[in-house]
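Much of what follows relies on a compact textual record of a protein's fold. Think of the row as the fold of the chain written in a discrete alphabet. An example makes this concrete, so a full record is given next.


***
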Amino acid sequence: GVAAGIKEMDSSLAEMQAGYAGIGQGISGMQTAVSSQKMALTQLQSLRAYFAQMPSNTGSDQSTSEEAPSTADWSLADMLPPQVKSKMPESALQQLSEIKSLDELDSKITALQGAIAALEGKIASSEQSRAQMETAMASMTAARSEMETLSNEMQTLTDAIPSAFETAKQDYLAALDAKS
């Protein structure tokens, strides 16, 4: 009966607590990812500002130096100063090597902003789910406590019944003896 119900609630609470902890770890991981993506976004935006200030190598305003190499086929990674390249992760340099124009860089920036927004939405949703789970666990803990109290009261009543019957029997017999 009630004891079995309490045992099932304990099992359910343990499962919910494990799920709660798992959601917390997921949120932490997503927050770390957002932080990394925001750092990457800041770097891309800085690169964008840097490259926007560079003179274009297309059109009639080409370099007058005959020794200057053409940058028409260079990627943004190729144009980075060595001190900047040395601070960037290889994966970022690989992605920048695929970008040949400011429009492509703007597209990467927009995509990264979208990814950050999506992750932040998932974090908010996960935090809401976690809060709801916490409320449910508190309700289950309260219900478990009530069931334990009920079980204790029922046991007290069960223990008291034989004594109460014995007392009633003795009182009845005493009353019969008093009448005779």
User: Anything to note?
Assistant: The longest helix spans residues 102-179. The chain has five helices and no strands. Confidence is low (pLDDT under 50) at residues 57-71. The helical segments are 2-52, 76-79, 82-85, 90-97, 102-179.
